Amino acid sequence: MRIITGAPGTRKTTIELERMVREPGCYLFANPTVDLITERVADLQRMADEAGTKPVIIAIHRKTRDTVVRQVTRTIADLPRDMENVSHVIALVTHEGIISADLSRFSGWHVIVDEVPASIATGSMRIPATSAYMLAAYDLADQGDGWGKVVVHSEAPGFAKLQADDFLAVLATFHRRAQSNAGVYVNLTDWRDAQVTGREVNWVSVWTLHELEQAPFESVTLIGSGIMHSLTYLVSNVIAPLNITQTQMSMVRAGSPRVVIEYFARAHRGSTLWWSTDLGEQNLVAIRRYLETRQVGYWSANNDVAPFLSGLPNRMKPKIAGSNRLLDRTSCAIIYSSKALPTDRLLTDAFGITRDQIERARECEDIWQFIWRGALRTPDFTGEYRIWLHDRAQAEALAEQLRQSGMTTDIVLQHVALPGFHDVVRQVTPGRPPIYVGTAAEIDAAKKLANAKAARQYRARARAAKAAATKQAILSNSPRQE
Questions:
Q1: The pLDDT of residue 123
Q2: Residue 164 sits in which domain range?
Q3: Helix (H), strand (E), coil (C) string for 152-204
Q4: What dihedral angle (degrees, nearest 10) is formed by the CA atoms of 386, 390, 396, 397?
């Protein structure tokens, strides 16, 4: 397995695109999103015209046909048969497509994966009523230690129907993962056990890079700047060491740009929970008012946060790795959080992945990819590039990544003190009550947030204990075989 790393803008993907166009062969090219596939098809067609070659270029994803996931994956799996007599073909698929498809017939093909798939998924749900549907749609194959593997019934509704269902749409990702090569594992072996009120059902789906190693590809190439920090790579390597060769790409720049990183919070970290409070919402309004006075080239935020920033032009999705559409922009803002979730404890317990590693793989990597979509990506840019982030921790982490990339040493961090912005800190000393620093209103809000969290944790423990006691009572009162 060949891994090509380096900062965005080092032509990692471009070089592979040029190779696919120039050298006849059969290529399976996996991309993060459907939108990026559209960009790549245009790039490949242009490059083929310039090179004088005529590869067959195919895009396979749900938006190219009125179909369901199962048919997309079948189309991918049938490529070796359908293209048997074609000497030069480039088939573009999504990450989800390559995770879900049967890759066992791709002998002689080359697979290129642009950015590492986010193939590790976890979740939790309480389904005392929905368990009846689960029982009808999915079997559970006992895996031992109280875990079962989800097996989709042939007559179960497909992914598209679940997505369109007002009540069951939340199960769409679960269903798609259950149909994929990764599968889904839940912490029970009988759906009827989930009928106990308060019972939390945890699930995990893990697709590893070993799937590519074990498939009969002629070669396997991964391209990306954060591969070695990704959860997919970390978990894969814990399960079994990967056999890799690594190539580090670097950018030859015309000069060193100046990067100014402005941030708003010095004392606290951003989170969707904090932003859902009254003070958190007030902070978002203060940030929007400030950004409205600046020339923001493009911006993004969590879905729950974005409405508070509405009115700013050029909103983008947080995950836009690989895109070249914004190269004329010299500034960007991303007010964003993607830290470890409670369900991620499965990754910690099973694979030893830390909360810091999860934050590096998600939040830091998304911010890193996002800020590189603008002019910073071009080697001849030597001007000033301005970035707005929520808090100091994010700004410091990004500055360190920029220094390590060797792109520039001219990095300035600036705190922006906003009117109406509440900067709350909760200082904790082991064995002592927490000390809150801030205004009276800020302290009151922080305490309420902490108390609400403690109350939820207490209720969760109480429900778990009650559920265990209830189940034991049911078992004790059930008829027994003598």
A1: 86
A2: 120-206
A3: ECCCCCCHHHHHCCCCCHHHHHHHHHHHCCCCCEECCCCHHHHHCCCCCEEEE
A4: -100
Is position 482 within any domain? no
- Judged by DSSP in three states, 413 sits in strand
User: Domain check: are 328 and 406 in the same one?
Assistant: yes
pLDDT score of 469? 54
**pTM, full prediction:** 0.77
Give a yes or no: residue 399 inside a domain. Answer: yes
Ranges 289-293, 417-421, 458-462, most confident:
289-293
| CB of 394 closer than 8 Å to CB of 337 | no
Residue 64 DSSP one-character state: G
Range picked from 154-158, 219-223, 457-461 for highest mean pLDDT: 219-223
> What is the domain count for the chain?
4
**Claim to verify: residue 293 and residue 235 sit in the same structural domain:** no
The alpha carbons of the chain give a radius of gyration, in whole angstroms, of 25
Residues 381 and 271 reside in one and the same domain: yes
pLDDT for res 42: 95
- Across 11-15, 139-143, 163-167, 374-378, least confident range: 163-167
Q: Does the residue 305 lie in any domain?
A: yes
Could you give phi then psi for residue 8, rounded to 5 degrees?
-55, 145
- Looking at 175, 190, 206, the residue that finishes a domain is 206
User: Is the model's pLDDT at 482 over the cut of 50?
Assistant: no
Helix (H, G, I), strand (E, B) or coil at 425: strand
**What residues have CB less than 8 Å from 474, skipping those under 6 apart?**
none
Query: C-alpha distances in angstroms, 392 versus 96, 373, 376, 439?
Result: 34, 22, 21, 20
Task: Say if residue 9 is in the same domain as residue 110.
Answer: yes
Is the residue at 429 inside a domain?
no
Residue for token pair 């580090």: 248
Same domain, 265 and 349: yes
| 64 and 28 assigned to the same domain | yes
For 406-416, write each residue's pLDDT tens digit: 888 899 999 99
